[in-house]
Amino acid sequence: MKVNVRLLTSTVIVSALLMMILAACAPDASQFILSPNLSKQIAARDAGAEVTVIKEEVKTLADLSEEEKFAGLPEDVMAEIGKVDPAAGEALRTKYACAGCHSIDGAVLAGPTWKGLGNTAVNRVKSESPAFYLYQSITEPDAHVVEGYPSGVMPKTFKDQMSATELAETILYIMGQTQ
Ligand code: HEC
Asked: Which of 4, 74, 121, 173 is the most exposed place for a label (fewest CB within 10 A)?
């Protein structure tokens, strides 16, 4: 079989050129760290400004004062916070069937796991205390919908069903899930 040398040579040259072009277009991974401010950073760079990447601080429950942990809770629930036993929240998980949708061991069911939620709740909504975030998630599930999960799945009935004592017990129980 006769090999078309000219065709072969031009194919090799074209491939090499293509590879060089591709390499030149590849993004420089060290230039930007993906961040919510990326578009602003690119605009700033294009305008000739220096770009600094500031990492957003992630806090844990232990970093907060008592006031910062519980700010915003309604008075009746707040009044129970110092009195109730957080361990009672375990039985309420079954009583209200939370356990059917929320694991405490990291398993993903219909809803997000409560594993580590004591700390996660600190960072979910920056303007809310973790206790208030949890209170609102239980009594008004659509107020903030956790990314990756659908709205309208978690029942909206707990606000009427659960007493202030039970809400305090559940909130403290979840805040105890920090591992
Ligand atoms: C039928 C399933 C279902 C049941 C039952 C259920 N939930 Fe949920 N829950 C969800 C889903 C889905 C989400 C995520 C979507 C959202 O944010 O509404 C969620 C979100 C939450 C969140 C926010 C979690 C996070 O990671 O920020 C809390 C807290 C919560 N539920 C508490 C409860 C409590 C307490 C009960 C029981 C009294 C309960 N849920 C019962 C489905 C359920």
From this structure: 4
